[in-house]
Amino acid sequence: MRWLLCGATGRMGRETARLIAAGGEEAVAFDARTAESGDVRGDVMVDFSVPEATEGNLAAALRLGCPLVLGTTGQGPREAEMIGRAAEKIPILWCANFSRGAALLAQLAATACAGWEGESALVEQHRAGKRDCPSGTAEMIGKSILYVLNSLKKVTVMGGDRVVVHPATQGKLERKEAVDIAKRNLTLLANEVEAFNGQNMKVCLETMGKLAQIGDAEETADFCAIAPFFYPCIDFGHLNARTFGSLKTTDDYLRVFDAFLNKLPFEKVKNTHIHFSKIMYGSKGEIKHLTFEDTVYGPEFEPLCEAILKLGLEPYIICESDGTQAEDTVTMKNIYLSRI
């Protein structure tokens, strides 16, 4: 494969060229200002140059019919519109930052906060000689945080008192590294919620169903200990999926609650948020949500109901069955009422 590198002499351009060469492929420096389409052949164009070159590089990629990987940041609305139009004709991957840590942070911010309309300040540190400040990564994270904080405000306006958050994914990081990043950024989130005067809200951190997602019972309990307004959202379908059908008896459910009771005040667990559905699972955990008609994967609601009553809990329970939420909610309600 032949790669055309825009910005080949910069730090990212040099590193990209090194990796391409290490893979046994060819990297060629490319400058749209001097290159003629008839003299150039390439399979993929990579742009780590400057925002001022975006228009010319897009035009060159379109002339060549060449897919474009765009890692340059700092473009304005005009360039963004041009990129969108070009993407209708050639494949384009445009990313402000290709690092795994930045991607994890952006996802956490987007799913973990919820918006506000007050003022915010964004502070960043990076290597000497960084050309764009604030960087594309910082701007991306800042927008995500504002989006999340705005959601909190809308919940308040509607009279609600809780939002549900997916903590993070592991990606290609080591598990401990991903968890540590999630903890650091949930701490930042907690500071933003306090600045928003959202301490009376319940930010419910959800247990996740795929093994590659951050959020088993122990991890989620640790996350919920970060701030007094972080509460568990225990998704028992997710936990059953990521443990390959481990939730069968009342004692199985009690062990899940114990994981939270061992690290959190009883009041948090008493008022926990619960998602419940049956979920198909495979070797990587959750595959898809099912209905209560399922007799293969589970889990069953009856033993969970027994555990809730035994511990004296008063949770919010949301049914997440696939298309039969109303019917399966009535089933759960009738099971509960038959036991009190």
Describe the model.
This protein has 340 residues and is of the alpha/beta class. Among the domains are: 2-94, NAD(P)-binding Rossmann-like Domain (Rossmann fold), CATH 3.40.50; 201-337, TIM Barrel (Alpha-Beta Barrel), CATH 3.20.20. Helix content is 43%, strand content 16%. It has twelve helices and 14 strands. It has helices at residues 11-22, 54-64, 77-86, 100-112, 136-157, 175-195, 217-224, 236-242, 250-261, 266-270, 301-311, 325-337, and strands spanning 2-6, 26-29, 44-47, 68-70, 92-94, 162-165, 168-169, 202-206, 213-214, 230-235, 273-276, 279-282, 285-289, 316-319. The strands form four sheets. It has a five-stranded parallel β-sheet, sandwiched between helices. It has a five-stranded parallel β-sheet with strand order 6-8-10-11-14. Strand 12 and strand 13 form a beta hairpin. Helix 2 runs parallel beside helix 3, helix 4 runs parallel beside helix 5 (136-157) and helix 9 (250-261) crosses helix 11 (301-311). The protein is elongated, with a radius of gyration of 24 Å. The N and C termini lie far apart (68 Å). Residues 114-135 have low confidence and may be disordered.
